From TrEMBL:
Protein name from the UniProt record: Tartronate-semialdehyde synthase
Keywords annotated in UniProt: Thiamine pyrophosphate
Reaction equations catalysed: 2 pyruvate + H(+) = (2S)-2-acetolactate + CO2
Domain Thiamine pyrophosphate enzyme TPP-binding, residue spans: 388-547
Length: 580
């Protein structure tokens, strides 16, 4: 056995687990680990400006690659600053490991400098939070951390390393250590057979693609199943991009916020819904009595406790999404491929008739026009990143995405500021792909210092800011309370409407070595996007296109899914199109 430091052993495990990039800030209580990373010469550390930003960068990297994102920080406030990122990753089922330094073990009960019970702080927002007490535990704790972060429903793990543990030694042979196996439950054959029967019995079936399908890299199997059975597909917010939005079977998105008009209508007309890797989150379902209606639900999820958490499905199946879809596809192939039906004709009809207008020419710019320009300018390979607010809701309603892992959104936790650091992680994962962050003016200001990280390391991406000079989602929500309190934000200077000048986002970008341009007329959006792509590539820095939009523009949303019209009886289908 080789005698080595505990941190050298930790780095050997990280390398074997495929870690090439970490984000973090060196500090006194974590320097032994950083020394081992430096000695290895095989892991690159990106120094962030705030630990929360580092967690979101690791999160973005994990979403883009499917690998475990890693963030490292020192003790005390470094760890507490990571809590929001840990929560965000766990809430959205993203594999991530945060590593914190800690005061020496014998000082933990003596209120030592920057000594905090970070394990206790992180426990509610992680899958596992652990204080390592002995050097000999280090390689095995790291192995288990990578297993837990990826096993079942993925999520975040925190490892807390006291200084004396980091400095300790152990006998460890990396060649005798290997990755721990992951659990991938297979579905019950009887349950799969019953699920297929329910779909075939239905008159208006829907397949629902959740984020778990993307996490399981099962979007291809999902598409093949939809095409063979000729069943329309709706996606959740976390599943956006998992099914091409120009596919004939795409049935939009249902929800009370991020939704399409035809998506809500088709969902409410459906009679059987097969949901895979979806949580039935409240922003998706709204009023459950309306959401459930008379339709039957089949729920497939890798996490047993997800089934029945929001409501009891008619059929629940615990399974890895990929294994379930393979089993469904194999069984479906025992019958001929199904052809066009009145239901798929209905989908095609509503997709072209029950839409929202986007071609506004007015000034101030209406937000839908911004997304019209985005859809027309950027190609299918562009990766989009967005966070929380009215701009996220408009993005979900208007933006078109065609590929899995090409639409990154913090769905459940919704932390403001997520986009900029997430863009960094996504771009490092895909350096040759255009990355575009859709941001709000207020969210931009939360972690805008991370632009300096991208400038330092020459990480180019585009930021398209929807600036309404409001905490827009809160202002719109307050309409129900007939008040408008503490949600007003000033426009960036120079202003033209008499408001007190606010922060100048373009100058902020320039002050950090990046670039920016402000747009106030709809015809100037596309030239600004062209300029941004050209300059980002040439200068290798982030570039901001700030679009000043109508201040009091609202997004369409409510308390429940709303049917625009009562559904029509399905028309008789020409028998010439139906296989005998």
């Amino acid at each position: 056995m080789t005698r080595m430091s505990a941190t050298d052993a930790a780095v050997q495990v990280m390398l074997d687990e495929g870690v090439e990039i970490v984000f973090g800030i060196p500090g006194a209580a974590i320097l032994p680990l950083y020394q081992s990373i430096m000695k290895s010469g095989k892991i690159r550390n990106y120094i962030v400006r705030h630990e929360e930003g580092g967690t979101h960068a690791a999160d973005g990297y994990a979403r883009a690659t499917g690998k475990v994102g890693v963030m490292i920080g020192t003790s005390g406030p470094a760890g507490t600053n990571m809590i929001t990122g840990l929560y965000t990753a766990t809430a959205d089922s993203i594999p991530m490991i945060c590593i914190t330094g800690q005061a020496q073990s014998h000082l933990l009960h003596k209120e030592a400098f920057q000594a905090v019970d970070i394990v206790g702080c992180a426990t509610p927002v992680t899958k596992w939070s652990v204080l390592v007490k002995e050097p000999a535990q280090v390689p095995w704790v790291f192995r288990e951390a990578f297993r837990i972060a990826q096993d079942g429903r993925p999520g975040a793990v925190l490892i807390d390393l006291p200084l004396d543990v980091q400095r300790g030694e152990l006998d460890f042979d990396p060649t005798l250590s290997s990755r721990l196996p992951l659990t991938r439950p297979a579905p019950s054959a009887a349950a799969i057979e019953r699920a297929l029967e329910m779909l075939l019995e239905a008159e208006r079936p829907l397949l629902m693609l959740g984020g778990g399908v993307i996490s399981a890299n099962a979007t291809e199997e999902f598409r093949q199943l939809a095409e063979h059975l000729n069943i329309p597909v709706t996606v959740t917010l976390m599943g956006k991009g998992g099914f091409p939005e120009d596919h004939p079977l795409f049935a939009g998105m249902a929800g009370i916020q991020t939704q399409t008009r035809y998506g809500n209508q088709l969902f409410l007309e459906s009679d059987v819904v097969l949901a895979i890797g979806a949580r039935f989150a409240d922003r998706h379902t709204g009023d459950l009595t309306i959401y459930r209606g008379q339709r039957r639900f089949i729920h497939i999820d890798i996490e047993p406790t997800q089934i029945g958490r929001v409501f009891a499905p008619d059929l629940g199946i615990v399974s890895d999404a990929k294994l379930a879809l393979k089993a469904l596809l194999e069984l479906a192939h025992t019958i001929p491929a199904r052809q066009e039906s009145p239901w798929t004709q209905r989908v095609a009809h509503l997709r072209t008739t029950l839409t929202r207008r986007m071609d506004f020419d007015e000034t101030p710019i209406k937000p839908p026009r911004v997304f019209k320009e985005i859809n027309e300018f950027f190609d299918r390979d562009t990766i989009f990143v967005t966070a929380i607010g009215l701009y996220q809701i408009w993005s979900g309603q208007f933006q078109h995405v065609y590929k899995p892992r090409h639409y990154m959104v913090c769905g459940q936790a919704g932390p403001l500021g997520w986009e900029i650091p997430a863009c960094i992680g996504v771009k490092l994962a895909h350096p040759d792909t255009l990355v575009v962050g859709i941001v709000g003016d207020y969210s931009f200001q939360f972690l805008m210092e991370e632009v300096a990280v991208a400038v330092q390391y020459r990480i180019p991406f585009i930021l398209v800011m929807i600036n309404n000079a409001y905490m827009g989602l809160i202002r719109q929500s307050e309409i129900a309370y007939t008040m408008n309190y503490c949600v007003d934000l000033a426009y960036s200077a120079p202003n033209t409407d008499g408001n007190t000048p606010g922060i100048d986002h373009v100058k902020v970008m320039e002050a950090m070595g990046a670039l920016g341009r402000r747009v106030e007329a709809p015809q100037d959006i596309r030239p600004a996007l062209e300029w941004a792509v050209r300059e980002a590539e040439a200068q290798r820095v982030p570039v901001l296109v700030e679009v000043i939009v109508e201040r009091e523009a609202n997004a369409a949303m409510g308390a429940a899914l709303n049917a625009i019209t009562e559904f029509e009886p399905l028309p008789a289908l020409d028998t010439a199109t139906v296989p005998s």
